[in-house]
Amino acid sequence: MRLSKLAVSSVLAAVVCAQDEAAPSQQVEHPEFTPYTGAVTGFFEQFIDGSKWQKSAAKKDDEFSYVGEWAVEEPVVFPGFKGDKGLVVKSPAAHHAITTAFDTPINNKGKTLVVQYEVKLQKGLECGGAYVKLLSAEVNNDDEGIEEFSSDTPYQIMFGPDKCGSTNKVHFIVKRPLPDGTYEEKHLVSPAHARLNKLTNLYTLVIRPNNEFDIRVNGNVVKSGSLLEEGLFKPSFNPPAEIDDPKDVKPKDWVEEPYMPDPEQAEKPADWDEKAPFYIADPEAAKPADWQEDTPDYIVDPEAFKPEDWDDEEDGEWIAPEIPNPVCEEIGCGPWVAPKIQNPDYKGVWSQPMIENPDYKGTWAPKKIANPDFKADEHASDLEPIGGLGFELWTMQEDILFDNIYVGHSVEEAEAIGNATFVPKLALEAEEEKLAGPQKETAPWDTDEGVLSAVDMFLADPVSFVLERVLGFFEVFSADPVSAIREDPVVAAASFGFLLISSATAFGLLNVVIFLLFGKKKQAAPVKAAKTKKSGDGPSKLTQADVVDAEVEAEQVAEAATASGVEGVPADLKKRKA
């Protein structure tokens, strides 16, 4: 995008190089906002007239799904032009949805599509979205569709920043029809990172008729390619032209094993000793000439003495401590043992040798046939008519401001708008940031500045926080598992750990149910065992303790039998209990 590079560079330099000489009494002069009056053939929103935006009334379970409030107001953090308003998200930790319909649907077939808008994160962004959806024209033809705008509303493009935890990306999703009439979302696999400062940032998407696209942030291209490039989107825009033949079956005589046991060596050799140890005593080792086997390794400490307060009757016999024998520091003492070496005759457990399989044919694969569902999407850039746009977001931080929204066919128009609105606005904001000086780093537990920590986000709305993190992870995981795990290892570990624990818990509960249903019949077994044990003891003299134990045992067995419904408790047990 041909934004004024000199102006943008100057602004960025001012952002980075804040000068200490800026006195607190200084103020940035903010000129009055002047609406853009250049030629615009597409949709352009500056939020200067009566609002054409409608907050969603969509309900779920008889409750409002989107309770987040919206307002059209000036920014309060690093403002730009005086009187310059934008659409602002006003509720923290809430779902927001708002939309506007185009006067005339935008037909993109054979044309360039340009989407551009400003995002200002006045309180940063810890977890939430700031992306826009280009809605299908069918929504424009149905007033109820606008009023009931939700996550289920049909759309053509989803584009813009999203941040939660370690996930930070600029979404680019294209929704395309399949041959069976359903729609499929095509996700950009490796999206660019969003800008998370508190200044205004300009996001631009350009899709050309030749299927080329580029994504720009503040006029700089951060991602580009072709919609049809294999591996750039997942799933790909075009299905494979050939697929495996589902009717093809591997022949029964197909051999996939490259090696086989040697039939000529089917038996273990007679001289193969499997019990031979891995290490043996070194037969060439000899005891050193000065080795003293009769000299102990430890001797009584000659400097030790019995304490004066030692009492043999109370403390026991006093024994002097031992110390390493100093004689053994230079020579060896005690029984001599030859060192170990690897056994040259060690062979280990015998196994039949393997040889190359003469019948090996390689790994079998079914033959390929033409894909009956193949339909080349050669014009992926030809979207269906676009009838409006909307923001359908969940965010933990409020005061996200959107402004200067453009949807049309002209890159030149978008560039002119950016140079006339974004560039001078960013310069004023940079001056405000420079005047404010270094920003205080907010502690994770300090929310005075409106920055919520992960703990605060969870406490504010635990269900939404967990769902946003988990669903966001699995969305990326379905497209690129490696990147998903690398970007958010905590959620990955928690998700897979939860699945593992849930499986183990379910298995344990199943065992408990099986035991309760089929395990009760075995409770009467101790009666017979106890009786058999007594009859086998022989004529021995019982002590008083034996009698007491027998009575207790009889009571326990009788109670167990009664509880389990066992009939015919032995008479001697009943009598003993009585």
Please name the CATH topology of the largest domain: Jelly Rolls
The termini sit apart by 101 Å
CATH architecture of the largest domain: Sandwich
Please estimate the helix content: 25-40%
Question: By helix and strand content, what is the structural category?
Answer: alpha+beta
Query: What is the tally of beta strands?
Result: 27
Rg for CA atoms: 41 Å
Q: Tell me, briefly, the overall form.
A: extended
CATH class of the largest domain: Mainly Beta
| Sheet of most strands | 9 strands, antiparallel
Mean pLDDT: 81
Q: Give the amount of beta strand, in percent.
A: 15-25%
Could you list the spans in which at least 5 consecutive residues all have pLDDT below 50?
14-25, 441-453, 521-552, 557-578
Number of DSSP helical runs: 12
Tell me the number of structural domains.
Answer: 3
List the helices and strands and how they pair.
Blueprint: H1 5-16, E1 43-45, E2 54-55, E3 59-60, E4 63-64, E5 70-73, E6 86-89, E7 94-106, E8 113-121, E9 127-129, E10 132-136, H2 137-140, H3 143-147, E11 155-164, E12 167-177, E13 183-188, E14 200-207, E15 212-217, E16 220-226, E17 233-234, E18 242-244, E19 259-261, E20 279-281, E21 298-300, H4 312-315, E22 322-324, E23 340-342, E24 354-356, E25 368-370, E26 386-395, E27 400-408, H5 411-436, H6 454-460, H7 462-479, H8 481-487, H9 489-518, H10 525-535, H11 544-563, H12 571-577
Antiparallel strand pairs: 1-27, 2-7, 3-4, 5-6, 6-27, 7-26, 8-14, 8-27, 9-11, 10-11, 10-26, 11-12, 12-13, 13-17, 14-15, 15-16, 18-25, 19-24, 20-23, 21-22
